[in-house]
Amino acid sequence: MTDPAHPVLRMAGVGKTFGLTRVLRDVDLTVRRGEVHGLLGQNGSGKSTLIKILAGFHTPDEGTVELDGVSVELPLSAADRRDHRLRFVHQDLALLPSLTVLENLIADDVATGAGIRPRRKRAELARATAQFDRFGISLRPDTLVRDISRLDRAKLAIARAVSHLGDADGAVRGLLVLDEPTAFLPQSEVAELIALMQAVAAQGAGVLFVSHDLDEVLTVTDRVSVLRDGELVGSEDTASLAREDLVRMIVGRTVSTLSAGSAPVHAARERPRLQVSALRGGAVEHLDLSVQPGEVVGLTGVIGSGFDEVTQLLFGAQRATGGSVAVDDLELEARRLSPSTAINAGVAYLPSDRAVQGSAPTLTVGENVTLLSLRQGGGPFALIGRRLERHAGKLLRDLDVRPPQPGLAYASLSGGNQQKAMMAKWLVTGPKVLLLSEPTQGVDVGAREQIFTLIAEAARQGCAVVCSSSDLDQLAQICNRVLLMRRGVVSDEVHGQAVTKAGLTDMLFADAVPRSSRLASDA
Amino acid sequence: MSVRTTTGKGAEAVAPTRPGARRWTSRIEAGALPVAWLVVFVVFAVLLPNTFLSTASISNILGSQAVPLVLTLSLVLPLVCGDYDMSVASVATLTAMVIGILNVNHGWSIGAAIAAGLVAALLAGLVNGAVIVLFGVDSLIVTLGTGTVIQGLVLWISDSTTISGISTSLVDLVIGYKLFSVPAAFYYGLVLCIVLWYLLQHTALGMRMLFVGRGRDVARLSGIKVGRVRMGALVASAGLAGVAGTLYAGTTGSADPSSGTSFLLPAFAAVFLGATTVIPGRFNAWGAFIAVYFLATGITGLQLLGAESFVQQLFYGGALVIAVSLAQLARRREASSAGTAT
User: Fold this and answer.
1) Which residue of chain B comes nearest to A415, CA vs CA?
2) N or C terminus of chain B: which is more exposed, having fewer CB within 10 Å?
3) Domains defined for chain A, CATH in brackets
4) In this complex, which of A349, A358, A405 lies closest to B17 when CB atoms are compared?
5) pTM (two decimals)
6) CA angle (A254, A258, A263) in 5-degree steps
């Protein structure tokens, strides 16, 4: 039924527009049998839209999709994806942690099989073992998924997807789409996953591998396609490409390799307001950082690099495993940090997840904004009342939250106004250190500028600001200095004049020696 | 009737109102239950001018509902913090039984017996809080379990018999003394209502509890010690249940090992019904007060009209389901339009 001559996937002339934004234009993409095909591009280049078209989530405005040489109807139906053996492993892996390895492996059969047919546990077990053997996975089928490592989870997710690529006669065909499955893995473990991917391709399937990591792509893929601003820049044989060629394709121009680890421009004239030493926790392996009063420091990187966890660790929102944090003269052990001790030390934190971590959407704007003012004086049983409401009204007017009515439900404000209200909540405490995480996510353009002004104003009053963000534009606008994190350590830094969007893009794709690992070995 | 102000992106989309002012639709919602109570009262007063509309009947309704009222109030605190406490009725029975055994069988003074009963209640609250907060177990399941354990303990220590003859000084304190011919028990409930209202609506602690219930992550990230607040609410809840048990012992002059559990469902019905009024969408003290007396008025009236005793179950069970549905609707709406700041 499958003709080896046909590619497993051929997309031709695919275009997609959302509103006025053209996200994909005339994209051709071919994945052959037995190859690992890399898909690269910056944030917003159209990668995710392309994957979502394959997943049947979006319908392209134009273009065709062929699977195994057969033209399929769009949007792609679940039946077509099943018949042509099109399987996905997304970044979150979609495993159920409280079930066993075996149960996760057969989850899809359970979902679609006849309801009251008895399960043949012995057969299931035998099939799982065979599956694992074939790809060199050593996992006990009765272990709970929550007890296995991240690497094993990624392998399991891939094995599950592959188990649906096999024909009755055992031959593997179809297309496996891997959407950044390596993002959360340390470098040392990626190799194993790469071997697994190559084994899958060698057995006859096609693999489409989406990644941010150029080195990974260069190692594992046979061919690579690059998207830029919604257009296909090209599909090339990986062997014919050098790293610089790939970067040029992604960014659209030559990138100068920065000298990594050059000294910051401003020598420490004053005592730093925030001093972080050897911070460790989550994906962060080692971080040293000192921030002067009035300085705005950005942190960025790809998903899984740990840049987004630093602010959480510094606030105690997520437990650190080591290191220390000093605010002015107050030194704190990072492991002991809790939001309460951090607040008492003068630290403020605006989480990126406004709806869950930043606010209680069903309570009023006034209540949300004044929650922290309650800490000031009076004790838990003191009378509050009109005073607080007036205070809230003033805050909302000062920060131009529209409408400035404390009695409205918080959820009824627009994204930008919600964020301004959150700024109001925290700035009223007069913080010494302001930690921001994606501060303008889901915020309209006007409010975005106002939030930048508020951040600049806080810095001018002596606040040390740390902002983790994947929005390079934003970082370029507000930061004095931006650190790049890679696999849990700071790998590069730009400061002064170089903090522009172009400068930051260069840094993101430049090949730099990890700086903090050197520092760590000095210590 | 349904006028909804859409609150869109800019200021222009919102009707200009005074800060904190409530729109008239939410006023109607807040006042619906008190009005319904009045209507029920008037209807029965007209139908039964001699029996229902008598001082004895009214003072009976007010006095006899003190135990359900305090038990309902005991549920308000953990519910505001987002936890269920299914053990309150058992805890109340435990307190009554400890008072009975120590006072009648062991000859303790009534004061010491009451103190011991309340300590037992607080201990039960500590156990609830410890298991729920420290081990992170679902409160509904834990308190269902501890409630049953406590019920078993009560049957054990009492030998499954009712202990009567509790000191008359307690009986006097609860139903003997009267003001405007209403027993003292009613006023105790009223005082607790005022305390709870002040705590929830006018103190920093009340606001923190609200955040703990509605947005645990926000509360934690705003420096609130979430575990401590939940623990405190569960212990306070057990303490109030102990007060309800004391009032129960005082009302009957005896301690009955099994009838206490029949108070649980009416208390839940009332606390959820109460959350649809005064401050719709939020558990609140005055709402609970109104709900308890609304339900009691309805049932007393129906029974005086000759309805059989099963009407009680129909009434309480139905009220619980309707109240929970209404509370859910109010909460959903609160999320999408103007809330109420009091």
Assistant:
1) B9
2) N
3) 10-251 (3.40.50.300), 274-522 (3.40.50.300)
4) A405
5) 0.73
6) 160
